[in-house]
Design goal:
Elements lengths: L4 E5 L6 H13 L5 E3 L19 H4 L2 E6 L1 H11 L6 E5 L9 E2 L3 H10 L3 E14 L2 E8 L2 E6 L6 E7 L2 E8 L1 E5 L7 H4 L11 E7 L9 E4 L4 E5 L6 E5 L3 E5 L4 E15 L5 H10 L2
Parallel strand pairs: 1-2, 1-3, 3-4, 4-5
Antiparallel strand pairs: 6-7, 6-17, 8-11, 8-15, 9-10, 9-14, 11-12, 12-13, 14-17, 15-16
């Protein structure tokens, strides 16, 4: 029997309160304690880290995320070093990171009690910015690290390297470096491939490149990707999972590699990435 379950709702979603009550009522029958991130904490607007989460590894074995993909991404970054598995309940639009839809909530909660589930791991990115020889920014992300121009900037130029070997110079709106999990996010919208999240690879996808060709590059997850800002007169930003930003300067070096931590997810036997791909994207 589970010693406890953590629940992280996006309280701004209209059905959040209803889903929380259903979760509470279900596990109350089995005397399993529930720890809920309070409504007074608007998850996506809080500065990191969330103090409330520090005690959770001692009292919960599973964290249920109630919201959309944005909520899941934030919690993934917060929980990455805890080894606590995450389970998403979709209250968003696509909800590609969520295992459960509200319509069949209790069915899957029952599977948790009976142990009818397995665990998976999603690789994460470690991104660091060097200005000269000094590290000025460091963060992790589950989906992607995006280097892009500001809203009023012209074309920017980014030089890319793999393991210190020159790859390409990208003139355009920017570059997306994503995990397989992030391949169905912004990378997909920019023309990148869909990659099964079980694979250990990283993707480099240019954003609106001013080139005669537009192709993503897939590299081994052990490779180190370096991007050097080669534009001196533009506003350029680094964004992690679309939620955490950092302004970049001319000649900044952005190093992106597989993080030492990973996001642990709870999955069910009938979970199938290719069926999910069809349901969420192809049949939308």
């Amino acid at each position: 029997m589970l010693k406890g379950i953590g629940v992280v709702p996006n309280w701004q979603k209209t059905r959040a309160q209803e889903v929380i009550h259903r979760i509470e009522n279900f596990f109350a029958k089995y005397n399993i304690p529930i720890f809920i991130l309070p409504e007074k904490l608007p998850l996506l607007k809080l500065p990191s880290p969330i103090e409330e989460f520090k005690s959770w590894p001692e009292k919960v074995e599973l964290v249920i995320v109630v919201g959309g993909d944005g909520t899941f991404l934030r919690v993934a970054r917060e929980m990455a070093f805890t080894d606590l598995p995450l389970l998403g309940i979709n209250l968003g639009h696509k909800g590609f990171l969520s295992e459960i839809e509200v319509s069949n909530l209790e069915t899957f909660l029952e599977k948790i009690l009976t142990g009818n589930y397995s665990f998976g791991e999603r690789i994460m990115l470690q991104t660091e910015v060097y200005r000269g020889n000094e590290s000025v920014f460091s963060s992790i992300s589950l989906n992607d690290a995006i280097i892009s121009r500001g809203p009023f900037s012209r074309i920017i130029k980014l030089d890319s390297y793999i393991n210190n070997d020159f790859l390409e110079s990208y003139p355009g709106d920017g570059v997306i470096i994503s995990t397989p999990t992030g391949s169905t996010g912004y990378s997909l919208s920019a023309g990148g491939p869909v990659v099964n999240p079980a694979l250990n690879v990283l993707l480099i996808t240019p954003i609106c490149p001013h080139l005669l060709y537009k192709r993503s590059v897939i590299v081994n997850s052990d490779d180190v990707i370096s991007i050097i800002v080669a534009t001196s007169s533009a506003d350029i930003y680094l964004t992690m999972d679309g939620q955490e930003g950092f302004p970049l300067h001319y000649k900044d070096k952005i190093i992106v590699k597989k993080a030492s931590c990973a996001t642990k997810v709870l999955t069910f036997q009938k979970s199938n990435f290719y069926k999910l791909l069809h349901d969420k994207l192809l049949d939308a």
